[in-house]
Amino acid sequence: MTAYAYPLLIKQILTAPLAHAPRQQIIHADRTRYDYRTFADRVARVAGALRGIGVAEGSVVAVLDWDSNRYLECFFAVPMLGATLHTVNVRLSPEQILFTINHAEDDVILCHVDFLPLLSEIAARIERPWQLVVLSDDGQCPDIFSSSGDYEALLEATSPVPDFPDFDENTRATLFYTTGTTGDPKGVTYSHRQLVLHTMAVAAGLGPIPGGGLNRGDVYMPITPLFHVHGWGIPYVATLMGLKQVYPGRYDPARLLGLIAEHDVTFSHCVPTILSMLLTAPEAAMTDLSRWKVIIGGSALPEGVARQALERGIDVHAAYGMSETCPFLTVADMMATRDPDAPVSLRTATGKPAPMVQVRVVDAEMNDMPRDGVSTGEIVARAPWLTQAYLKNAAGTQELWQGGWLHTGDVGLLDGSGTLRITDRLKDVIKTGGEWISSLELENLASVVDGVAEVAAIGIPDPIWGERPVLVVAPHGETADVKTRLRAAFAGAVTRGILSKWAVPDRIEFVDSLPKTSVGKLDKKVLRTLFAI
Ligand code: AMP
Fold first, then answer.
1. pLDDT for the residue 181
2. Does residue 192 lie in a domain region?
């Protein structure tokens, strides 16, 4: 007899919900609704259909879709075959999408009808042979390309895979691309083992919070696109826990708020700009959000936005991570914020490490900075689920993993309690006269000023000081009044000793709305170009 060396594989995430919550619902907006048994059957059918068109261990299957039940099915079916799921960022430019498809060496592309025009634009330049499967919401399969068929029709015609094989837990499961400020997108990959460990650690980190966190009574709806770090990995967590899940399709504020009300959604996550967009949508006033818990990541949660959310009864907390970290590294101290007198800053701080995560704040020689709440340095991390290498990019990998710690490129500080606070991105930090100004601190101060809808602080080249801070604001209301209030807020912060005099922005510029990146964050690169003179 030999012991069974249990490999950590994505297929095992499905075991618990089938035992505990087989009748629980998975919903795709107003289109589809079925239970976990049907989900498991469909996963087996998707796998059968993909096998039928030649997908095998080592194949790469790309998905271009809105957030749907189909996407969740692929989160399981593709890796369970030993193939790699390439979640394509549909917000990239056509040229960047083409780059990622070629770089990933996709064998099959599952593409929603809405993205077929985009695909037809680049199809002739896809370098390897590939097959298309069309995803549609109404069974209509337009005649742009010859395809292997429509997803639903293929599922119907196939025989489900009866049993998924065991294989090495280090097999690659997922692949997606992250875009920096320069250069080509970088391919980030995760193995089965990493995704399983991340799933369990997030459940263990967010779960055991009395009256909060993420628990079996919750109804889950992601508002982070599933192509963005697997929807921050939470769809795997929600499935493991057997939660009712709602996939919203294409994001539209009225529709998202409608789904929250209709399905009594209690747990979501998104970037701060999306939360602001929801809170300021006309429908928000008519929607009860008092049972909604929201994790904010991807960018700093400005205090002004956190306050607005709290006023609506939303239990809001920041978390921190990045594409290269699967993504979870730290989350605000959700136990401490159970205290009704806890300051809002405890919710906006990026908090404490998730289980199994080691986080340090270091100087350029990798010495730890004092945990005094003021000394800043680069945040470096270790955890079982950090990407081990950029795909086919040895130089990038070397830079990422210098000294055996993953370099986040973020600047932060730790206080005496071990709470992490991010003060900037290394490349966004404003350097003036040899000193650093935290752009996030300026944004935080501005975010609570009446009339400020969105705000970004950027460094603009200056012949004397190197750089000077400029504040760019999307206002609601009279800009002259907003400017006066902002000036007063900065002057007050200087008087109270919160801000140095030289850190006060010289210029305040107004725009209708701030530019966003492909994942909905403020795009400071574009702003720096716009306001360079
Ligand atoms: P991405 O790879 O697109 O997920 O972006 C990751 C980056 O977003 C991090 O390196 C940080 O700069 C930023 N980020 C993520 N979460 C936070 C947070 N809670 N506060 C401040 N910045 C954050």
1. 61
2. no
Identify the pLDDT of residue 532.
82
Using CA positions, which residue lies closest to atom 15 of ligand 1? 298
Statement: residue 175 has pLDDT above 80: yes
**Ligand 1 close to Cβ of residue 320 (< 6 A):** yes
pLDDT in tens, 88-144: 999 888 999 999 999 999 999 999 999 999 999 999 999 999 999 999 987 777 777
Query: Per residue, what are the HEC states of 196-246?
Result: HHHHHHHHHHHCCCCCCCCCCCCEECCCCCCCCHHHHCHHHHHHHHCCEEE
Q: Domain limits at 456? A: 428-531
The residue whose two tokens read 């574009």 is: 526
The total domain count for the chain is 1
- 482 and 449 in contact (C-beta within 8 Å)? yes
pLDDT in tens, 208-236: 899 899 999 999 999 999 999 999 999 99
| Ligand 1: nearest atom to the Cα of 409 | 10
Cα–Cα distance measured from residue 177 to residue 349, given in angstroms and rounded to the nearest whole number: 27
Q: Is the pLDDT of residue 336 over 70?
A: yes
**Is residue 448 in some structural domain?**
yes
Q: Is 303 left (phi over 0), alpha (psi -120 to 50) or beta?
A: alpha
Q: From the CA of 422, how far away is ligand 1's center (Å)?
A: 9
Give the pTM: 0.92
CA nearest neighbour of 439 among 466, 413, 469:
469
488 located within any domain: yes
Q: At how many degrees (to 10) do helices 303-311 and 439-447 cross? A: 40
The set of residues, in sequence order, having a beta carbon less than 8 Å from that of 317 and lying 6+ positions away, is 293, 294, 295, 296, 331, 332, 334, 337, 347, 351
Task: Say if CB 528 and CB 521 are below 8 A apart.
Answer: no
Q: Which H or E run contains 188?
A: strand 186-191
Task: Encode 298-345 in three state secondary structure.
Answer: CCCCCHHHHHHHHHCCCEEEEEEECHHHCCEEEECCCCHHHCCCCCCH
Q: Which of 270, 299, 407, 447 to mutate to test the pocket of ligand 1 (most atoms within 8 A of CB)?
A: 299
Q: How many Å lie between the centroid of ligand 1 and the Cα of residue 424?
A: 9
By 3-state DSSP, what share of the chain in percent is helix, strand and coil, each rounded to 5? 35, 25, 40
Contact 167, 185 (CB under 8 A): no
Q: Which atom of ligand 1 is nearest to 324's Cα?
A: 2
- Is the separation of the CB atoms in 431 and 290 below 8 Å? no
Q: For the domain that residue 486 is a member of, what is the CATH number?
A: 3.30.300.30
Pair 421, 411: CB distance under 8 Å:
no
In a domain, 455, yes or no: yes
Distance between CA 463 and CA 467 in Å, rounded? 8
pLDDT of 183 over the 80 cut: no
- For residue 72, which of 36, 115, 123, 22 has the smallest C-alpha distance? 36
Residue 126: strand, helix, or coil: coil
| Pocket test residue of 273, 322, 323 for ligand 1, highest count of atoms within 8 A of CB | 322
Q: Which sequence positions are flagged as catalytic?
A: 178, 324, 431, 436
Question: Which ligand 1 atom sits nearest the alpha carbon of residue 318?
Answer: 19
